[in-house]
TrEMBL record, chain A:
Keywords: Amino-acid transport, ATP-binding, Nucleotide-binding, Transport. This is ABC transporter ATP-binding protein. Signal peptide: none annotated. The keyword Nucleotide-binding applies. InterPro entries: AAA+_ATPase, ABC_branched_ATPase_LivF/BraG, ABC_transporter-like_ATP-bd, ABC_transporter-like_CS, BCAA_Transport_ATP-bd_LivF, P-loop_NTPase. Belongs to the ABC transporter superfamily. GO terms for molecular function: ATP binding. PANTHER family: HIGH-AFFINITY BRANCHED-CHAIN AMINO ACID TRANSPORT ATP-BINDING PROTEIN LIVF. Residues 3-236 form the ABC transporter domain. PROSITE patterns: ABC_TRANSPORTER_1, ABC_TRANSPORTER_2.
Automatic annotation (TrEMBL), chain B:
Signal peptide: none annotated. Keywords: Cell membrane, Membrane, Transmembrane, Transmembrane helix. It is a multi-pass membrane protein. This is Branched-chain amino acid ABC transporter permease. It is found in: Cell membrane. The chain crosses the membrane at residues 28-47, 67-88, 93-110, 130-152, 214-233, 263-286, 298-325, 356-372.
TrEMBL record, chain C:
Its main location: membrane. Belongs to the binding-protein-dependent transport system permease family. LivHM subfamily. It is a multi-pass membrane protein. It is found in: Cell membrane. It comes from Asanoa siamensis. Pfam families: BPD_transp_2. This is Branched-chain amino acid ABC transporter permease. Keywords: Amino-acid transport, Cell inner membrane, Cell membrane, Membrane, Transmembrane, Transmembrane helix, Transport. InterPro entries: ABC_transp_permease, BCAA_transport_permease.
Length: 237, 397, 314
């Protein structure tokens, strides 16, 4: 198991946002977390990446206990998150943003090659290479955020709402790229999505969250055809 | 350590809960007793009555400086802190030049009441000096006006920019005061400022050079001010201030005229600052430009935040501590019998507590803020918010 | 007004010199503000420590306020040495301030105003500590560079001190700009300034970046301290206060958090003060600086160049 999240709870002030979440991700998988707004998907992601401290529970990654590890050290361990709301550095160029992704890497020789690879995945970024991140369109910023996360050569890529605010055509495109990253490069992916249809059809396994707890888990296909899930999240009666 | 802290917390909560449960009459009685205690503080006889050995070291009494003078200083700093607390604590506006309003109040009283003021000696604008009591409302009104005039352009600025502009304002007032050939007479200053009125039974003036009556006067003003501010904060105005502090944009959307209420807060604070300055000038009898150093603005701000912004009790506690602690530290050398000087390589170094007191005070500020970032006696709601923030800290940050 | 027209060349050169010193100190305020959104009040006292660092360095070589002037080569060497010592000393003290006064508060996620109080506390500790250490005495600065004009073009005269000050300041600013814009550490600083959480997700150690920022600010203040020593010819434990205030005003003038803004703001403030004091009298030197600042903020509420630490467009 690459990632084990064991019964974690998390507080926002006095409000308990997570009530004992247990999630695991195997090497090479795409795992999706789906659920309504405020269900705790993004919070779970933040706990894994270390932006938020958890109140109880354990998180293990690649056999190492990272429960109390700082966020930046988790990157060195091989976890990289593309944050919700994209989190592109607005004052840096596309190039600098991508270089930020490789901040922790010691193998400087391979960075240029990886940047080329990312630019092949997202040709739009090549066109905007010298432009400031803040001047990109929403879709371009999303691509930049994903590309930047890839630049760290993560063992586990955390994608928080990669389709948020994108046009339907771009959503399709970005999910194709996600599948490609997973299949060609073998990168393990933990995905948080509102777009349950896309997420479930791409994911090997998925968890359904409701108000800070996991209410269902299964393979992507199982959940895609689960009547309750269909009813609540897929918008088909 | 933790054990002591929890026990202390339990004790504190216990006391405050017991106080809350008391019938109203007993509450008022306790408050009256406390106020009487405050009035008794500067009398040396009071400490003898308590059975404390005089002549030796008394823990509360500041032995290196007259207790009444120290208490009066505490008093006008408390008044300043109460004023600034409205601006910083309630309305959330960072004002680094608050002492400027104190200067406006002090100089107004000085120029209007001193026979040596250039108003009478050179410009002949007025016939004869005014009594202190007549100049007082003018001083308050002018400081209030200064608050409005300064607030009108700068209150549209955001937090940190407001800070530097107010800082600049206080500095500009000082520079104007420093001009020798102008009305404020620079560092030569204005002497013979009138004292507050009143005569003792034997016909001697109450307000002369003894600091005690001034302390009692400022204490009375503080008590009055506390009632005034309490009522104000519980009114519509106070709620508007809190709304502005919490989320200015939201307040604006809810239809609170934020700009107007910000000016209100600024002017109120300025008026209280000017009041404090007028009281001080009445006691000091002399003002000059170097009285108004910028460090003092910063000390008042330290008072508000150390005590706990947004709480009247906190402002009072803070105002008291920033004067009292450094003064009290003067005598700490006597407690431990430390020498005043040491010679290192032939050169004498002054290591008396008097000389080092602000060094210690700086350390105390840092330590208190690390362990109580919400201040010593914060507003309950705020303290809770800050506790919550603490829990949300990043992992290992 | 006549004084301004007749003295314009002299006023410009002295204004640039003073402005260069403001600018170097302003960089420290702006860097820390850019990354932490915090007014580092103790920065002026870090600068003050640098002014003593220089004096101690020179006295170690036997130079005090009454010594004869060394040869030009010797003077340049001594200045360079003093700059290194003062910069290191200031860098260390700036980092000490961060570690003792700010980091513990960050760990507890304290509200912004609490930082202001520890900043004031740290400022008291540094200045009063130095006051006790130096017996509150004023120290004269040994004469270093010759005072007669180095060259003059018409009525434009430049003394060796002015030339050195401006040259060193420009050198430092160019070096800093290169560091922040072109190096990996510089990218880390900008990343934390623009979005600290995302920077952590990229593997940037926020505390290390903050420490680095304090170090750089301290280094700049140390360089400024040596230049300021030679200009003012004396120093005291409270010397940082006024320069710190002006430098902070300069940082705000240029747009706080913006490095090039701090440089621009410092130089403009130095010039405005000199021109203004020619018109309104030297008594109003300090008045003018703040007047300019207040007027500017009313029309451009975020300073001349706006807030941004090393934005790409700058």
């Amino acid at each position: 198991m690459l990632l084990e999240v064991d019964n974690i709870t998390l507080l926002y002030g006095r409000i308990q946002a997570l009530h004992g979440i247990t999630v695991h991700v195997n090497e090479g998988e795409i795992v999706a977390l789906i659920g309504a707004n405020g269900a705790g998907k993004t919070t779970t992601m933040r706990a894994v990446s270390g932006v938020r401290a958890i109140a109880s529970g354990r998180i293990r990654f690649n056999g190492v206990d990272i429960t109390r590890m700082r966020a930046d050290l988790r990157v060195i361990q091989g976890i990289c998150q593309s944050p919700e709301g994209r989190g592109v550095f607005p004052g840096m160029t596309v190039r600098e943003n991508l270089e930020m992704g490789a901040y922790t890497r010691k193998d400087t020789g391979n960075i240029a090659k990886d940047m080329d690879h990312v630019l092949d995945l997202f040709p739009r970024l090549r066109e905007r290479f010298k432009q400031a991140g803040g001047t990109l369109s929403g879709g371009e910023q999303q691509m930049l955020a994903v590309g930047r996360a890839l630049m760290s050569r993560p063992k586990l890529l955390l994608l928080d709402e990669p389709s948020m605010g994108l046009a339907p055509m771009l959503i399709q495109q970005i999910f194709e790229i996600i599948t490609e990253i997973n299949q060609r490069d073998g990168t393990t992916i933990l995905l948080v999505e509102q777009n349950a249809q896309q997420a479930l059809s791409r994911a090997h396994r998925a968890y359904v969250l409701e108000t800070g707890s996991i209410v269902k888990e299964g393979t992507g296909q199982e959940l895609l055809h689960d009547p309750a899930v269909k009813d609540a999240y897929l918008g088909v009666a | 350590m933790t054990d002591v802290r929890t026990r202390w917390r339990d004790f504190r909560h216990g006391v405050s809960a017991r106080f809350d449960r008391l019938p109203k009459a007993s509450k008022i009685g306790l408050i009256v007793v406390f106020i009487v205690f405050l009035y008794a503080l500067p009398n040396k006889g009071f400490y003898e009555y308590l059975g404390l050995p005089l002549g030796e070291y008394i823990p509360l009494y500041t032995t290196r400086n007259d207790m009444a003078t120290v208490l009066f200083q505490c008093g006008y700093y408390i008044l300043l802190a109460l004023g600034l607390n409205i601006v910083v604590g309630y309305a959330g506006l960072l004002d680094l030049g608050f002492f400027g309003f104190f200067a406006v109040g002090a100089y107004t009283v000085a120029t209007l009441t001193s026979p040596r003021s250039k108003i009478f000696t050179e410009y002949n604008w007025l016939e004869s000096p005014w009594p202190w009591l007549v100049a007082l409302p003018i001083a308050i009104a002018l400081s209030l006006l200064a608050g409005v005039i300064l607030g009108w352009p700068v209150l549209r600025l955001r937090g940190d920019y407001l800070a530097i502009v107010t800082l600049g304002f206080a500095e500009m007032i000082r520079i104007v005061a420093q001009q020798n050939d102008w009305i404020f007479n620079g560092d030569r200053g204005i002497s013979e400022i009138a004292h507050p009125p009143g005569k003792n039974a034997d016909g001697s003036p109450i307000f002369a050079f003894d600091a005690k009556p001034y302390y009692w006067l400022v204490l009375t003003v503080i008590i009055g001010m506390v009632f005034l501010i309490r009522n104000l904060v519980r009114s519509r105005v106070g709620r508007a201030w809190v709304a502005i502090r919490e989320d200015e944009d939201a307040a604006e959307l809810m239809g609170v005229p934020t700009y107007k209420f910000k000016i209100w807060a600024f002017a109120m604070g300025a008026g209280i600052g000017g009041f404090s300055g007028a009281l001080w000038a009445g006691q000091a009898n002399f003002v000059n430009a170097s009285t108004f150093r910028l460090e003092q603005s910063i000390l008042v701000l330290a008072a508000v935040l150390l005590g706990g912004a947004g709480n009247i009790g906190g402002a009072i506690l803070g105002g008291f501590l920033v004067i009292y602690v450094p003064e009290w530290l003067r005598s700490i050398g006597d407690v431990f019998g430390l020498p005043e000087n040491v010679r290192i390589a032939g050169e004498p170094y002054d290591i008396s507590a008097t000389n080092l007191r602000y060094l210690f005070f700086g350390i105390i500020l840092i330590v208190v803020m690390i362990f109580r970032p919400q201040g010593l006696w914060p507003n309950r709601r705020r303290a809770a918010e800050i506790k919550d923030r603490e829990k949300e800290a990043m992992v290992g940050a | 007004m006549n004084e301004l027209i007749n003295g314009f060349p002299v006023l410009t050169v002295t204004g640039l010199t003073q402005g260069a010193i403001y600018a170097l100190v302003a960089l420290g305020y702006t860097l820390v503000y850019g990354v932490l959104r915090l007014i580092n009040f103790a920065h002026s006292d870090v600068f003050m420590i640098g002014t003593f660092g220089a004096i101690w360095t020179w006295s170690a070589f036997g130079f005090d306020a009454n010594s004869p002037r060394p040869s030009v080569g010797g003077a340049l060497g001594l200045i360079a040495l003093a700059i290194v010592v003062a910069a290191i000393l200031c860098g260390i003290f700036a980092m000490l301030v961060e570690v003792t006064a700010y980091r513990p508060l960050r760990a507890r996620n304290a509200p912004p105003l609490a930082f202001l109080i520890t900043a004031i506390g740290a400022s008291f500790v540094l200045s009063e500590g130095m006051a006790a250490f130096t017996n509150r005495r004023q120290f004269g600065v040994p004469a270093m560079l010759p005072t007669d004009p180095l060259f003059s073009i018409g009525s434009w005269q430049v003394t060796p001190l002015q030339l050195t000050t401006i040259a060193v300041a420009i050198l430092m600013m160019v070096a800093l700009d290169w560091f922040v814009q072109r190096t990996k550490f510089g990218r880390g600083i900008r990343a934390v300034a623009q979005d600290a959480n995302t920077a952590a997700l990229m593997g940037v150690n926020k505390n290390r970046v903050i420490l680095l920022v304090f170090l750089i600010g301290g280094l700049m203040a140390g360089v400024a301290a040596v230049l300021s020593d030679m200009k003012a010819a004396s120093t005291r434990f409270n010397v940082g206060f006024l320069i710190g205030l002006k430098a902070f005003a300069a940082a705000v003038l240029g747009g706080i958090g913006n490095l090039r803004g701090a440089a621009l703001g410092g130089i403009l403030l130095g010039l405005a003060e000199n021109y203004g004091s020619a018109v309104f009298g030297t008594n109003f030197r300090d008045f003018i600086g703040f007047l300019v600042l207040i007027l500017l903020l009313m029309f451009r509420p975020t300073g001349l160049l706006g807030e941004s630490l090393g934005r790409a467009r700058a």
